[in-house]
Write a structure and sequence with these properties.
2 copies of one chain form a homodimer.
Chain A (H helix, E strand, L loop, with lengths): L20 E2 L1 H19 L3 E4 L3 E3 H4 L15 E4 L2 E5 L4 H10 L8 E10 L11 E10 L5 H17 L6 E7 H13 L16 H12 L2 H13 L2 E3 L5 E3 L5 H11 L6 H12 L4 H19 L7 E3 L13 E12 L5 E13 L4 H4 L5 E7 H10 L11 E3 L7 H13 L4 E3 L7 H10 L4 E4 L2 H6 L1 E6 H10 L2 H6 L3 E5 L3 H10 L3
Parallel strand pairs in A: 2-6, 8-11, 15-16, 15-17
Antiparallel strand pairs in A: 3-5, 4-5, 6-7, 7-14, 8-12, 9-10, 12-13, 13-14, 17-18, 18-19
Helix pairs in contact in A: 1-4, 4-10, 5-8, 5-10, 6-7, 7-8, 9-10
Amino acid sequence: MAKQKKQPRPKAETPKGFRDYFGAEVTERQEMLRQIAEVYDRYGFDPLETSAVETVEALGKFLPDVDRPNAGVFAFEDDGTWMALRYDMTAPLARVAAQFRNELPSPYRRYTMGPVWRNEKPGPGRFRQFYQCDADTVGAPSVAADAEICAMLADTLEAVGIPRGDYIVRVNNRKVLNGVLEIIGDLEQPSFADGATWAEIHDRDVEDAVLRTADKFDKVGVEGVRQLLGEGRRDASGAFIEGVGLAPYQIDAVVSFLTARDSTNERTIANLNEVVSGSSEVGMEGVRELEQIANLLAAQGYGPDRIVIDPSVVRGLGYYTGPVYEAELTFEITDEKGRPRQFGSVAGGGRYDDLVKRFTGQEVPATGVSIGVDRLLAALRAKGRIHGTRQGPVIVTVMDRDRMADYQAMASDLRAAGIRAEVYLGNPKNFGNQLKYADKRESPVAVIQGSDEAARGVVQLKDLILGAKLAQDATLEEWKSQPAQTEVSRADLVQHVRAMMERHQ
Amino acid sequence: MAKQKKQPRPKAETPKGFRDYFGAEVTERQEMLRQIAEVYDRYGFDPLETSAVETVEALGKFLPDVDRPNAGVFAFEDDGTWMALRYDMTAPLARVAAQFRNELPSPYRRYTMGPVWRNEKPGPGRFRQFYQCDADTVGAPSVAADAEICAMLADTLEAVGIPRGDYIVRVNNRKVLNGVLEIIGDLEQPSFADGATWAEIHDRDVEDAVLRTADKFDKVGVEGVRQLLGEGRRDASGAFIEGVGLAPYQIDAVVSFLTARDSTNERTIANLNEVVSGSSEVGMEGVRELEQIANLLAAQGYGPDRIVIDPSVVRGLGYYTGPVYEAELTFEITDEKGRPRQFGSVAGGGRYDDLVKRFTGQEVPATGVSIGVDRLLAALRAKGRIHGTRQGPVIVTVMDRDRMADYQAMASDLRAAGIRAEVYLGNPKNFGNQLKYADKRESPVAVIQGSDEAARGVVQLKDLILGAKLAQDATLEEWKSQPAQTEVSRADLVQHVRAMMERHQ
């Protein structure tokens, strides 16, 4: 037989921009998602799991008219059909809501948890596969559906371990901003730096410019926003940023909206009323909706310590059509540079109306929230609620290769009592390697039985946690008074191991 | 502005060969996987979750030298690198074991659960995305690792709800078959129908032919196998299938191997010893390994009622290099044609040695099992352990649109008591629609409060399960004596709803 040319060895590498999750990284996420699912379930939401793959046609946005249409998605052709990995959970929901509209209950409350894929340049902390956890209500036009999701979001944060006071759900409404935009549009036409009047510029552009500027409110403050909405602003570096060119009273309207948040929801709503009242129908409708949301939540005991009307929430205002909401963690963490800063947003959502329309032509109202799974996990880690480690197994060491059955029986007894346990299955010749292995596994206890112990019906138990502690900082007296190794009867193995483990809890 | 040409609406369709999972389909799988993970964890296995994507280079088998190299996988090019969705869990484990060989403990016990993707023609019951649930031990050469996985497999089946007696883990060893092949090779050269002698045919071909034939043992029985290993066989349709052309004593050796299973593991092992003893070193080693496995398991209480040495297990013998094991469910189900048949295999695995070698050149022993998640779920359904339904939420109906806050507060109270509950969020005008919705949600109880009830501080509770039952088969007396609707104080809402739900458990 002709010898084949030797192939070079493949590289063992995680693909660029992807991650591998080990041990606690998997179980802690699973446990958090399980807690979230429990809350969602209690609110009547039903799970949905679509496949990772959708047709590019159903995903929308991406046209299969080029060889590789994966602008933002991972796409491939199959039998003449372009398919792609889902880039979010909303597009598959839209497809399902249209496809199964006759079978699904209406309203349809669904939650879903799983990975999504983005074909973006990988960067530090930016991955091309990550988890999303969404809950949406499809087919409920009333703001009671939005209020419900806000309450559920608050419950969810507490359920996973963010205590009350460490988070706030902030609620705004796109319709109020629409009212503000209507009001400024109805007022005198401003003229722009290049001499063009507003009328000459598409409404949408001004809208976008106002939204973009509002989005900088957190960063540049009231004065900065005023400048950016007006003539422009010179930033810290000395660079000049062109302004939107609004007139002062137009700027006032936008700023009154952004700064309407007051000490109580009632006062905030009164402030908003002042901005739009009598001037914009849609704006007043938006304020009424916020008032309803606040009342519905108050009736269920969700006061402004948990959910607050806050018109400075502008993230997503460009995308959503009605109420928007955002969950923010308010405790401080230390950033990479050692400076304290607020943890910030971990979830956001709002109302959108064109969910199913692309498929059926019918408008179906929908509202929903997406939790940033990795950010929320990072928050729990920052709060010390999860630790990135799990209980290692008890290691039954192997002193005598021929007595493997005895060692397996010990591990089996421990497991039957619910204790995580395993027999060392590497080469047992070097006992030091067995203890090194136990160390790497973060094992709490090592079980040792040589032929002498076997003959006497006993085992040695080595308390590895105490051992590590003593090795670190014990005095000679402590070493003597707290023996990290004890001999117990084989018959009492389970009971003694359990006691040893409980000592460290 | 020029009006854009109207795009045709996209089709709302699950991509061909993929599935959407709703409600209980999601939660029942999750719950089963959670139970499995608990057992795996107790055995010291650690979770691993790799990304869905691997480089085609790391996956192996698939060469990126054509435009679309996805023979069997879904592949796409990214920045000059071909990547693909994983088609199983073993290839990613191989990559991880090589990449992190210095960080991971050795032996490394890992489990993993998640979807895999196969680019195959979709067919009935054959999907292009499905779940796998694997556990493997990497770097443990001893058969104690194989025995451990067999015990874990038995524990797992019981943990998810397959009672002892309804399953059997069957164990075989490739090495014994190798011994048999060695023996027949050492004997006289048979001549084939076309006049060629065995020596003229590559060994591998005979090996494959014997494996393929052995694989038909379940179907054609001893006599059928004898014919197929010899001259050939005429099947039920009258068609003649060419035989392998072995001589009678060679056939005897293979058949003695396949039929070696006896009333006890000891006798089975004695039978196997007779087949290979003194004639094949590797065959004897294989028998010794089976004996060790049986002894290790017996010492932990896993007798032949749970795990049995059975040389008729041939599935996978072509792939694995040492022990192979298979979990079979032994209870009967009714197939599509109404005939009773055994449920069959739900998990399989074995020992393989070339896991990491592709990457590092070093041989690393590994053994592992893969559970067919969908088949095991189907088995639990067949056994009535899961039902494909979940508890629907209590529905708080809306009689008075302005009192939404009161209704939300009721749902909130119920949830706080751990009861799944929701307010009807569709258009409340038609009360019949609300009850139809409750029906679709399989709601146990509807809560009703009109303005009259509100004034009196009471609510009506409608027992929907009892109502459905009465509607089906109640007499007039029963209708009267078991009122499906009762009035209770608003203050006692939770307590009465709970009692109503408990009545049906």
